[in-house]
Structures are given as C-alpha cells and as structure tokens.
Amino acid sequence: MRRMIDAARLRRLMPALGREAKVECRVYVTGGATAVLFGWRESTIDVDLKLVPDSDDVLRALPRLKEALEVNIEIASPADFIPELPAWQDRSLFIAQEHKAAFYHYDLYSQALAKVERGHAVDRKDVAAMVDRGLVDPRKARELFEAIESMLYRYPAIDPASFRRAVEAAFGRG
Known about the structure:
Strand order of the largest sheet: 3-2-1-5-4
Shape: globular
Order of helices and strands: HEHEHEHEEHHHH
Low-confidence stretches: none
Helix content: 40-55%
Strand content: 5-15%
C-alpha cells in the first residue's frame, strides 16, 4: 500500500525524477499534486504527470521510484479527458528545475475544465480553490471551453450539452 502524498514527498520526488532524465524534458504535474503544491489540499493519493517529450529513461525508472518513495505515479493529463486547450504549454506554471527535467503545473485552465467535466465533489472544490486564489479567471475559462467545444466529438464519453451546463455552473454564463 502506497502512502498519501504531501508537499514534502512531492518535493522529494521531483529531484529523483530529474536525475533519471538523460535529455532535457518537461514534466507537467497535474491533478491532486497541483492542489497539494499550491496548498489547498494537504495530500493526494497519486501524482499525475505528463512528460514532454516522452522519456524512456524516466518511464523505465518510474516503477523503481514508486517503490523507493512509496508513491503512486500515473502518466495522465487533462488532454487524456478533454481536447487540448490552445496555448496550454504557455500557461503552464514553472515549479522547479531538477537536473535535466523542468517541472511545471499543467495549465490550470486545462485542469479546471477537465475537473468540471468529471464533476466529482473534490474536483468542484479544486476548481473553486483555483478561482478563489485568482489562478483561473471564469471568463477566460468559458472562452477556452468555447475554443474546444467543437472538438468534443473526439471524446465520446463526454456529453457536450452536459459539459457546457457544468462549465456555466462553475464559471457563470458570461
């Protein structure tokens, strides 16, 4: 059984991952790990990451790091659940440079919209925390939703009308 992950454990994971990268890469942290690092959640059950570019060295090291650090690590990002938002990389917030790996929070608008689509209670709290802290502007979130709305057909699990209603509930109608 892996342990819950707090900010200190996340801060130990980053240099360990960075040491495994043989080439320059970006590691995008998302989900509960973002919430923990920003401080609106004390812990999370896993660390969701996206590597750009994919790094075989880092991917091969994940099972060993998971065991050594007793953390759950998943390769996942908002783009696995909703269409990529325009310019998401430009809005991703820098966390730290660890060896050849630069760590970023995956674009908070992408995270917020993916959480709105999923709709779990913890997701709604995370989105409210992002808005309350000024990390996500409701108007901009609505605009970015509109930018991807025509691509929702690529995600058959998403009901576009329900997603739009959830976005309006979370961010207003404009």
